[in-house]
Design goal:
This protein has about 110 residues and is an alpha+beta fold. Helix content is about 25%, strand content about 25%. The chain has two domains: about 60 residues, no CATH class; about 30 residues, no CATH class.
């Protein structure tokens, strides 16, 4: 499980402050599952990072599936959605909708 820093992690030695990790940095576990911070000379467990929601947010594990589309798939009929964002008045929007309905129906 990965975590992202919500704000800078700063080490205050009493004499100076040092930014150890910056806001937005990603923290990943080591092979044993702990999160190592060498400059702090500390190891943290997942539970310890979860207990610090003002510093760390949990990043969901994403799974990415990639499928190659063959030429046969190009011609398959299915349900599709087309979304069009426009900046216009309601009156013009109704005209656009009418135009699309009249012209696109011929293609379907």
């Amino acid at each position: 499980m990965k975590f992202r820093l919500i704000k800078d992690l700063i080490l205050n030695t009493g004499f100076e402050e040092e930014v150890i990790l910056e806001k937005g940095d990603i923290v990943e576990p080591s092979n044993d599952g702990d999160y190592i911070f060498p400059k702090l000379n500390r190891r943290y467990s997942k539970e310890e990072l979860l207990s610090k929601p003002d510093f760390f947010e949990e990043l969901p594990d994403l799974k990415l599936d990639i499928t190659e589309i063959t030429e046969d798939d190009e011609n398959k009929i299915g349900n599709w959605r087309i979304q069009l964002d426009v900046k216009t008045s309601r009156k013009k929007l109704k005209e656009i909708e009418k135009f699309i309905r009249e012209n696109v129906n011929e293609m379907l």
